[in-house]
Amino acid sequence: MDSRRMNRAQEINVSDPFDLLEVEPRFDLDLAFLERRHRDLSRVLHPDRYAGRPTGERQQALGRAIEVNEAFRALRDPARRAVALLARHGRKLEEADAARAEPSLLMEVMERREALSEARRAKNREAVQKLSDSVKKLAREVESRITASFASKPPDLARVETLVGELRYHRRFLDEAGVALDDLE
């Protein structure tokens, strides 16, 4: 990394993944561009490029590489990306602070988890896959609503907070379904 780029990297707000990766702060990111940006920065910050440099410079580059990787993971994940955008709007959303989910959503989640548990016990891979596919579709719909809420003028931040909670329920279910699918292989 040349000294101008290293100085620019030092000026960036490392707590903001959009700033760190120098990408436009929006929910509907071009994920292919994000991946290229991450790859380019990772290449520039790779520890091997600093092998002959002073210890402080090597440590600084390693620290930046770690921050770039974490920023990439945050922006690649729709829920974490929405939380980062909320923070840019002055609304810090921790999972524990999330608005209470609607009782109907909680009932749907409970019923899906029961169906997943039954399918898993029955070793019914097809049923697990079907449940997973239906929740993936729901998650995509929630992501579309988050995009629309951020795009409204002014952005509907309270709605985004609620939708992030809903998306987290779907993501947890998908994680559980993924484990079930792996177990059934």
**Number of DSSP strand runs:** 0
Q: Please indicate the percent range of residues in DSSP E strands (runs of 2 or more).
A: under 5%
> Going by CATH, what is the homologous superfamily of the largest domain?
HscB, C-terminal domain
Helices and strands, in order, run as HHHHHHHH
Given the helix and strand composition, which structural class is it?
mainly alpha
Range of helix content: over 70%
Give the helix tally: 8
What is the overall shape? globular
Task: Report on this structure.
With 185 residues, the chain is an all-alpha fold. The chain has two domains: 3-76, DnaJ domain (Helix Hairpins, Orthogonal Bundle); 97-183, HscB, C-terminal domain (Monooxygenase), CATH 1.20.1280.20. 73% of the residues lie in helices and 0% in strands. The protein contains eight helices and no strands. Helix 6 (103-121) packs antiparallel against helix 7 and helix 7 (125-151) packs antiparallel against helix 8. The longest helix has 27 residues, at 125-151. The radius of gyration is 20 Å and the shape is globular.
Short recap of the structure:
This protein is an all-alpha fold.
Features:
mainly alpha; globular; single chain; Helix Hairpins; disordered N terminus
